[in-house]
Amino acid sequence: MKQNLGVDGDRLWRSLMELAEIGATEKGGVCRLALTDLDRQARDLFVRWCREAGCTVAVDPVGNIFARRPGRNDDLPPVIAGSHLDSQPTGGKFDGAYGVMAALEVIRTLNDQSIATEAPVEIVAWTNEEGSRFSPAMVGSGVYAGVFTLDEALQKKDIDGKSMGDELRRIGYAGREELSRRAVGAYFEAHIEQGPILEAEKKTIGVVTGAQGQRWYEITVTGQEAHAGPTPMPRRRDALVGAARMIEAAHQIGLHHAPDACATVGFMQVSPNSRNTIPGRVFFTVDFRHPDDERLSEMDHDLKDAFQWIARKAKLDLDIREFWYFPPTPFDDACVAAVRDTATRLGYAHRDIVSGAGHDAVYMARVAPTAMIFVPCKDGISHNEIEDARPDDITAGANVLLHAVLDRAKPI
Ligand code: GLV
Ligand code: MN
Ligand code: MN
């Protein structure tokens, strides 16, 4: 295959920017929560572009969209590339959208150059990767990979009690295509790094060797509601004071297991949330991450010890629900090597890197040879409306994706 074969970087950038208009926020970001009307608009645009690129489009019952460019031997397992179109509430233009648009650009480039492949090539847009509106994250790819059952996924509810199943039907993306356990030739996902390493080291490509493990918890602290005035301090069972101490403890656990641990409390509900009533109940979430499973388990023990001790001291009831877990996930050696070799061949400065974020690739790695390609993002900031990336890097990542896909799909 021609070494100088490359994607049309301007077209890729224009598509990304057009997509980012759907759910655009004033600060230049995107709010496109899973299965909202805005998600539907993004899906519709993506499907239109795929059809214009000659692909046939199939939607599975959890709303994952697969756009297929046939292979010469169409019975071969497809080589799939993609990511997600949903965003965080204060998300950016690139998280997820880049991987989907880069895969579309790969197919547009193959069309422009009249390159046929032995194996079919597919673009995928996974449902609810972010885990923000419906938790946990990576639900569409999780169903596809058999980690969640379809029923379990469809019953997931948002904060207003709306279910994924109802919302999928409402936006017209509850597909009928069988979620067959078909073989997949390889899965590649291009993504912004979402951290500072590539930019700091002036590397264009991150060769992602795997993703760190995660443990998510749902914590309910129960005390007693009482009047803010007449209730003496020693008599109080203030659930929010207990939760505050637990949040600090979670943060300390993250620091204690430095430098690789991450600990985040990002969601909290206080009840009854009234200025002059002592809070009787607090619900919050904890997100723990570590690239080493043993350390992640130590963090788990530390959390339980600390939270139970805090609850006992403050005479509070405590419920710790282990909501979600996946272990550190290494990617496929041969696919990772294909990404690394391609980056070298194309002359891009690169380094191996472990993903701090969760990605659909983590679940795909359970059912297919998988790898990811990272490109730098400005100041390492993501899950923020100011998330930004350089067009040259965006193009470089798509070029690596193109050659990695061809390596597996075999140009004729
Ligand atoms: C996905 O965005 C994650 O939380 O890693
Ligand atoms: Mn993402
Ligand atoms: Mn994200």
| Percentage beta strand | 15-25%
Continuous helix count: 12
Rough shape? Answer: elongated
Average pLDDT number: 97
The radius of gyration computed from the alpha-carbon positions, rounded to a whole number of angstroms, is: 23 Å
Q: What is the total tally of β strands? A: 16
Elements, N to C (H/E): HHEEEHEHHHEHEEEHEEEEHEEHEHEH
Helix content: 25-40%
Separation, N- and C-terminal Cα atoms: 9 Å
Low-confidence stretches: none
Q: Biggest sheet, open or closed, and with what strands and sense?
A: 9 strands, mixed
What ligands are attached or bound here?
glyoxylic acid, manganese (II) ion
Structural class: alpha+beta
Please, could you describe this protein's structure?
The chain has 412 residues and is α+β, with helices and mostly antiparallel strands. 34% of the residues lie in helices and 22% in strands. It has twelve helices and 16 strands. Strands 1, 2, 3, 4, 5, 6, 14, 15 and 16 form a nine-stranded mixed sheet that branches. α1 crosses α12 (391-409), α3 (97-112) packs across α12 and α10 (333-345) packs across α12. The longest helix is centred in the C-terminal third of the chain and has 21 residues, at 293-313. The radius of gyration is 23 Å and the shape is elongated. The termini are close together. The mean pLDDT is 97. The structure holds glyoxylic acid and manganese (II) ion (2 copies). One manganese (II) ion (MN) is lined by residues 84, 95-96, 129, 191, 359.
